[in-house]
Write a structure and sequence with these properties.
CATH architecture: Alpha Horseshoe
Helix content: over 70%
Radius of gyration: 15 Å
Number of helices: 7
CATH superfamily: Tetratricopeptide repeat domain
Shape: globular
CATH class: Mainly Alpha
Structural class: mainly alpha
Number of strands: 0
Distance between the termini: 61 Å
């Protein structure tokens, strides 16, 4: 049996799961250089930036992911989360609504939107 070396994306995901965020970001950027159309690498990189607290960079990466998969409910949801964490409530709400428009059964987007609306009504 032969095993292949892990790809940059695999390494980036493993490092992300371990919480090694700077190393994960570096590996995922390498993965994107290798394949600029790899949606998963963009999603993982956006998550890594968000977990690292760099919400502006997370938004930038996930906005690019939307250009790769404009009809993906998952991508719009993740972009909504990034906007939410960046305190851009208007854009977060728009992305959650787009996510639900693409997939009305997306429970994560529904919960995030409900939470956002509840917080807005409390203000």
């Amino acid at each position: 049996m032969t095993f292949s070396a892990p790809t940059a994306k695999d390494q980036g995901l493993m490092l992300l799961k371990e919480g090694a965020l700077p190393e994960s970001i570096e590996a995922l950027n390498m993965a994107i250089e290798e394949d600029p159309n790899d949606l998963d690498s963009f999603l993982y990189l956006g998550l890594a930036y968000a977990k690292h607290g760099d919400h502006v960079q997370a938004v930038d990466v996930l906005e690019h992911a939307v250009t790769l998969a404009p009809t993906s409910s998952k991508v719009h949801y993740n972009l909504g989360v990034a906007y939410h964490k960046a305190h851009n409530i208007t854009q977060a709400k728009e992305q959650y609504l787009r996510s639900l428009g693409l997939d009305p059964s997306n429970a994560l987007a529904r919960k995030a939107l409900d939470s956002l609306l509840t917080a807005q009504s409390a203000d």
